[in-house]
Design goal:
33% helix, binds zinc ion, 241 residues, six-stranded mixed β-sheet, Metallo-beta-lactamase, Chain A, binds fe (iii) ion
């Protein structure tokens, strides 16, 4: 069984510390810097087996080489983006399996934010490591992919068990809530959830991981009926102040 703990890095990023309870095997997802991750690993038992990467942006890979050198951990990332990721020990694609101790993750290709973006889903623990594809109450900007690609990526997430934990790459939830409320003003579930988000942030708590069931009810980007509606929503969010 996998547990996932957010490790705050940079100003608003999260790396995710994954631990397999059966074996103690530990992984870090998207370490943008090493020092806070080293501290989190020390607190969790001092072991790092794997470094999982969702995409090539510097705020997700900046700490990889320092961590690899210190722990000898294997680095896993998208074969499609191997040319712009740190050197990969395991290059993966859609449907591949990544093991961590006794647990394993399914690899999903989720283009949209970047062309080679991937996500990892651990069924035992229901943890979805989705990088910058999906955020709580939002989604990643379309920097390289199309709305049609992102729509298909989000459809893969929608099909996961509703209790799945959304372990995303940024603490953007409060700002996302402001846009979501403007975009979907009649959504009572969203209004209640946004209130909860405000309370968490006022108490200086992370808003993630969130539950897929809550995102399905409140996140407007998971509620668009088709790629055209998603394109429209994303461009309105890009202009929203
Ligand atoms: Zn990114
Ligand atoms: Fe990012």
């Amino acid at each position: 069984m996998i547990s996932a703990q957010p490790v705050p890095v940079l100003s608003d990023n999260y790396a995710w510390l994954l631990r397999d309870s059966a074996t103690g095997a530990t992984a870090i997802v998207d370490p943008s810097e090493a020092d806070p991750v080293v501290a989190a690993i020390a607190a969790a038992g001092g072991r790092l087996d794997a470094i999982l990467l969702t995409h090539h942006h510097h705020d997700h890979i900046g700490g990889v080489e320092a961590l690899r050198a210190r722990f000898g951990a294997r680095v896993v990332g998208a074969a499609a983006d191997a040319h712009r990721l740190p050197r990969l020990d395991q290059a993966v694609a859609e449907g591949d399996t990544v093991t961590l101790g006794a647990a394993s993750a399914q690899v999903m290709e989720t283009p949209g934010h970047t062309r080679g973006h991937i996500a990892f889903f651990f069924p035992n623990g229901a943890a979805l490591l989705c990088g910058d594809t999906l955020f709580s109450l939002g989604c990643g900007r379309l920097l390289e992919g199309t709305a049609a690609e992102l729509f298909k990526s989000l459809e893969k997430f929608r099909a996961l068990p509703p209790e799945s934990l959304i372990c995303c790459g940024h603490e953007y939830t409060e700002a996302n809530a402001r846009f979501a409320l403007a975009a979907d003003p009649g959504n009572a579930a969203l209004q209640a959830y946004a209130e909860q988000v405000r309370a968490w942030r006022a108490a200086n708590k992370p808003t993630v991981p969130s539950r897929l069931s809550d995102e399905l009810a409140a996140n407007p980007f998971l509620r668009t009926p088709d790629a055209a509606a998603l394109a429209d929503l994303r461009s309105r969010k890009d202009q929203f102040r």
